[in-house]
């Protein structure tokens, strides 16, 4: 279990979220660290603390009040925070992450109490190194989540409040994959904001100016990445919620140089692809035959398209250009076609169809595309509520035996269709996965759980594998390995009536499988820099697990003076 070194005493110890145990300090530590008289006399267990904390949590009347309670607990006692979260993960995930974290982010400057994370602003680029030097020493940061706050959780530009999405993502890497909480760094790149509500708010804590773009922005991002890798050479960098025109461009800029990852592109793509692979298994549709329509071609939509194309290329042995022809992408102008020219982002261009596939008078809206393409799979990532109408779903169901429908937009109010409706419109034939939690659907008197395409079952394990292997880069082949590992956990592989994806409650075990897949592939490709990685599967499993942090109190000892 190990011990923890702490050089302070008394109130300093109680105010340290990393070392504070509250009522769990044993007598010998109360004596040794001058805590006598600072705590009630009764000694409690961590489980008793969790019971009390859960009662306090449950007494909060609103979700945002519960979110604030959890944030406050995290700043007081990390072990208790993570133990409480571990004990009630499924219930609390929507409180500490989407959708409630979105509300906390929107109100960041008004709920602000104590800062957490690293705040870098575009007007002080010459101080990035100084700012990063205020955190842990160079070999003590494994995982960095960085955002510029332009596209947050379906609520858009949130400026400096986006630091909370970096904080939330790192909390999930700890609880789902055992990344040590003191070896993480949440970062926000404050480039200003185009959110008029924030610009007019006298309490707003970020740069009160329009968002900076172009060359100055690019220099800011590049300078941050360069200095962060110099300062923290072991760190894996996770890009989060960058805008449509920057997300893939920035990922492509760095992914051949450093171990980095964009959850909106790659994480969403991986978890969606795992659900799709399970659905294809159940529906007995071959990967090299599948026809996929994606409604919503932003960072996440194109990320999903890219992951599907990569998998078709690798698994069906097709050239990438042929693999992409099995995917039809739509956005605000309708079906993406080459004649849209400058209206297409660089990431969208490879998925634009030839215009001669569609006559000039032929509509290119979603219904028209579904009628013509007759897709096996319909994926929504548009944030356009109720876009999957009864007419569209029934049209799809006319042509395929088992419609595969994934309304993935979140939060819940933005979903393209309700699973209950999809189930009814397809007479219970549809295989579904959603982007937010939904209640079970009923068919012939039986209830069936709906799979949630929750990135929390995917990105923590990918990050754990990258950190433990110290991979030089995160390759496409490594992501395909992650998808296969997640797919193998699908309950639907054993019973077609079960969900397409495993429950988030099992995220820690899933992360072990994904981490092992990442590590093995990193070794095979020659990217792993860590020495002594076990080659035998059981040994590798133990090697991964022993390095995963768990929320337990460690005995405190004073570091020996040299």
Automatic annotation (TrEMBL):
Keyword annotations from UniProtKB, A to Z: Metal-binding, NAD, Oxidoreductase
Amino acids binding a divalent metal cation: 240-241, 264
Name the reaction it catalyses.
Answer: (S)-malate + NAD(+) = pyruvate + CO2 + NADH; oxaloacetate + H(+) = pyruvate + CO2
SMART domains noted in UniProt: malic, Malic_M
Taken from the UniProt entry, a GO cellular component term is:
mitochondrion
Q: Which residues form the Malic enzyme NAD-binding domain?
A: 265-523
Active-site residues are 97, 169
Question: What detail does the entry give on cofactor binding?
Answer: Divalent metal cations. Prefers magnesium or manganese.
Which residues does (S)-malate bind?
410, 454
Matches recorded under Gene3D superfamilies: Malic enzyme, N-terminal domain (3.40.50.10380), NAD(P)-binding Rossmann-like Domain (3.40.50.720)
One GO molecular-function entry: metal ion binding
A GO BP annotation? malate metabolic process
Domain named Malic enzyme N-terminal: which ranges?
74-255
Q: Which domain of life, per UniProt?
A: Eukaryota
Q: Identify which cofactors the protein needs according to its UniProt entry.
A: Mn(2+); Mg(2+)
- Kindly indicate whether the keyword Acetylation belongs to this entry: no
Report the sequence similarity comment from the record: Belongs to the malic enzymes family.
Per its UniProt record, what NCBIfam families does this chain match? Answer: PRK13529.1 (NF010052)
Know the name of this protein? Malic enzyme
């Amino acid at each position: 279990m190990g011990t923890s070194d702490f050089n302070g005493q008394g109130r300093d110890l109680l105010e340290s979220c990393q070392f504070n145990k509250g009522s769990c300090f044993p007598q010998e530590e109360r004596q040794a660290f001058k805590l006598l008289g600072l705590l009630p006399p009764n000694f409690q267990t961590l489980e008793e603390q969790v019971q009390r904390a859960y009662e306090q949590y449950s007494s909060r009347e609103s979700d945002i009040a519960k979110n604030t309670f959890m944030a406050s607990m995290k700043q007081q006692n990390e072990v208790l925070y993570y133990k409480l979260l571990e004990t009630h993960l499924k219930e609390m995930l929507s409180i500490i992450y989407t959708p409630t974290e979105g509300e906390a982010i929107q109100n960041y400057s008004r709920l602000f109490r104590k800062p957490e994370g690293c705040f870098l602003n575009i007007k002080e680029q010459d101080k990035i190194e100084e700012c990063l030097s205020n955190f842990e020493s160079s070999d003590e940061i494994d995982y960095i989540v960085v955002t510029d706050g332009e596209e947050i959780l379906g609520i858009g530009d949130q400026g400096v409040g986006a630091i909370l999405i970096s904080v939330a993502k790192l909390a999930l890497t700890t609880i789902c994959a055992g990344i040590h909480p003191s070896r993480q760094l949440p970062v926000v790149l404050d480039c200003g904001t185009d959110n008029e509500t924030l610009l007019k708010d006298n309490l707003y804590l970020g740069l009160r100016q329009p968002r900076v773009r172009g060359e100055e922005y690019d220099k800011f991002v590049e300078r941050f990445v360069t200095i962060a890798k110099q300062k923290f050479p072991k760190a894996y960098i996770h890009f989060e919620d960058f805008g449509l025109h920057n997300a893939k461009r920035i990922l492509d800029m760095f992914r051949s140089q450093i171990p980095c990852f964009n959850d909106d592109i790659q994480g969403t793509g991986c978890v969606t692809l795992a659900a799709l692979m399970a659905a294809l298994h159940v529906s007995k549709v071959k990967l090299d035959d599948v026809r996929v329509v994606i409604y919503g071609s932003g960072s996440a939509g194109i990320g999903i398209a890219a992951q599907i194309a990569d998998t078709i290329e690798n698994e069906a042995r097709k050239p990438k250009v042929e693999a992409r022809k099995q995917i039809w992408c739509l956005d605000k102008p309708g079906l993406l076609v080459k004649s849209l020219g400058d209206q297409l982002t660089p990431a969208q261009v490879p998925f634009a169809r030839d215009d001669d596939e569609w006559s000039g008078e032929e509509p290119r809206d979603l219904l028209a595309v579904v009628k013509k393409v007759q897709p096996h799979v319909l994926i929504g990532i548009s944030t356009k509520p109720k876009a999957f109408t009864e007419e569209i779903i029934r049209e799809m169901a006319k042509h395929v035996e088992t419609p595969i429908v994934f309304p993935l937009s979140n939060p819940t109010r933005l979903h393209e269709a309700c699973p209950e409706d999809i189930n009814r419109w397809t007479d219970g034939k549809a295989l579904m996965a959603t982007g937010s939690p939904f209640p079970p659907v009923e068919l012939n008197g039986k209830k069936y759980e709906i799979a949630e395409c929750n990135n929390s079952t995917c990105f923590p394990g990918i990050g754990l594998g990258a950190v433990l292997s110290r991979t030089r880069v995160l390759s496409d082949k490594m992501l395909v390995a992650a998808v296969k590992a997640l797919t193998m956990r699908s309950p639907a592989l054993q019973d077609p009536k079960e969900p397409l994806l495993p429950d988030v409650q099992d995220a820690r075990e899933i992360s072990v499988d994904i981490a092992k897949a990442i590590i093995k592939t990193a070794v095979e490709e020659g990217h792993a820099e860590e020495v002594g990685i076990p080659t035998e599967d059981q040994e590798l499993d133990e090697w991964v697990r022993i390095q995963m942090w768990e929320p337990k109190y460690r005995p405190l000892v004073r570091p020996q003076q040299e």
